[in-house]
Amino acid sequence: MSDLTAAQLYASRVISQSCGEPAEVWPHETYRPESVVVGARLGDGEEVVLKASGHQSGGAEANTLRLAAAAGVPVPPVLDEGEDPVLPGGRWMLIRKARGRPWALPTPNVRASARTQADLGWIFALLHACKLPGYGPLNDKGEGSYARWSDWLRASLTEPLRFLHAGGHFDRELVTRVERLFSSQAPMLDRRPAVLVHGDLGNMEIFVDRRNRVVDIIDFGDAVAGDPLYDFAHFVRGGPADDPRSAAILPGVRRSYAAHGGAEPENWDQLFWIYDIFNAVRNAEFSVQVDLPWVSGLRNKVVHLLNQIDDCQSLR
Question: pLDDT value at position 104?
Answer without folding.
Answer: 80
